[in-house]
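Bug report (template v2)

What were you trying to do?
Predict the complex of my protein with arginine.

What happened?
Run completed; filing so the output is reviewed.

Input:
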Amino acid sequence: MRYLVLLGLVAFVLGQETSVPRLDGRIVGGEATSIATYPYQISLQLLSTHICGGAIISSDWIITAAHCVVDSPVPSYLSVRAGSSTRNSGGQVYTVVKVISHPSFLTSTLDYDVALLQLSSSISTTNASAISLAASGTGPAANLTAVVTGWGATSEGGSAATTLQVVEVPVISRTDCETAYPLRLTDRMFCAGILGVGGKDACQGDSGGPVVIDGLLYGLVSWGDGCARDDAPGVYTNLQVLRDWISTNSGV
Ligand code: ARG
């Protein structure tokens, strides 16, 4: 009898353990925030459904990930919601008139994961303003703090957030990231996260969204194996090496 009670207790505790979500929080491991603090963040929508994030780089140009726009047959299926902390209401919605994906973008490798979106009219709504791009260079130095925002999943395989989320993650050195992703990291990518720990990361639905360091735009959410895993950091489009392409194509 005592055995049975003990067995029951053990089973109960184990059951409790597994029902507790392993990675709690938002984005993954972040917290809810306001668009007033991150007025450059937009929600990119395909036929009025949130698919990705993006950033305002001038009153009529948005930057996002190229993999976010491959499914839209025409630019006008895409729209941008600016000036709202909520992805599905508020702020102002603008139609996309032109999509410029990087000509070297490859879906298979996600190399050159960047696209420029021109809007039908200039953004002029409260809590919506452009962020300055980092100057051209090789990419952010290891250990700098990257601020990542978005409405993506709050856990691997989880559902998208309704309110904008923010998380801070340290930039990981190229050498360390190549170890995590052998033969997959190109010069157009950099990594951020906490190797060996995990718990904080972007996730599905955050793609195309901004990565800001010291008030400048350095990256876009691009890919990762799962989300917030200890051995698989977030991979971001390295905008410093694409700076000239951006100015040539948008004038920004
Ligand atoms: N590709 C994803 C998207 O479309 C973003 C994945 C980012 N993953 C990560 N672990 N950081 O939203």
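What did the reviewer find?
Residues 145-242 form a domain with the Thrombin, subunit H fold (CATH 2.40.10.10). The chain has a mean pLDDT of 91.
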